């Protein structure tokens, strides 16, 4: 068994050496490519460097004075200040102010606004239901012939019920 294992050991060492050589070759190739990329970047940077702009610096060299930005001149704001002063002097007439806009609204004003349409519909339904109840009571009281007497009798009955409750 030892005879068979010896050739394997030698071949494994050979393969390891070959692998090391391939890794070194790849490393050299990668370093070479990175160096070429850096050279290309340096060349492109040298060609496209931005020109300086001097805002607050006074260059001493005549060739750099071309890039000097002239100092800004202050704008004339006297007209704007006069307009603002005139607007400040004008007085607001109290009569023109709407007091309702100044008064704070109740916390539930938006709920009331949103529910108003639904309440109108319910109010109509309520009126119809009341009318139907009146008709039913009138049908129950067939002995009363005059409609006005019936309405008076029903309203009197309703007020007496309200007093009891």
Distance between the termini: 115 Å
Low-confidence parts: none
Helix content range:
55-70%
Shape, please? elongated
How much of the polypeptide forms β-strand, as a percent range?
A: under 5%
Q: What's the main sheet like?
A: none
Mean pLDDT: 79
Tally the helices. Answer: 5
> Radius of gyration, rounded?
50 Å
Q: What is the helix/strand order?
A: HHHHH
What is the total tally of β strands?
0
Instruction: Indicate the structural class.
Output: mainly alpha
Task: Spell out the blueprint of helices and strands.
Layout: H1 2-47, H2 78-89, H3 99-102, H4 109-140, H5 147-164
Describe the structure.
There is one protein chain. The chain is mainly alpha-helical. Among the domains are: 47 residues; 61 residues. 68% of the residues lie in helices and 0% in strands. The chain has five helices and no strands. The protein is elongated, with a radius of gyration of 50 Å. The N and C termini lie far apart (115 Å).
């Amino acid at each position: 068994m030892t005879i068979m294992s010896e050739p394997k050991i030698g071949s494994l060492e050979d393969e390891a050496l070959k692998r090391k050589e391939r890794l070194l070759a790849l490393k050299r190739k990668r370093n070479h490519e990175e160096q070429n990329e850096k050279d290309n970047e340096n060349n492109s940077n040298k060609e496209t460097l931005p020109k300086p702009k001097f805002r607050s610096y006074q260059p001493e060299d005549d060739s750099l004075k071309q890039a000097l930005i002239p100092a800004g001149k202050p704008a004339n704001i006297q007209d704007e200040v006069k307009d603002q002063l005139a607007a400040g002097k004008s007085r607001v007439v109290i009569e023109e102010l709407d007091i309702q806009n100044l008064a704070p609204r109740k916390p539930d004003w938006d709920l009331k606004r949103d529910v108003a349409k639904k309440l109108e519909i319910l109010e109509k339904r309520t009126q119809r239901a009341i009318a139907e109840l009146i008709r039913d009571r009138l049908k129950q009281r067939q002995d009363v012939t005059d409609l006005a007497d019936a309405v008076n009798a029903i309203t009197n009955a309703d007020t007496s019920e309200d007093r009891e409750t």
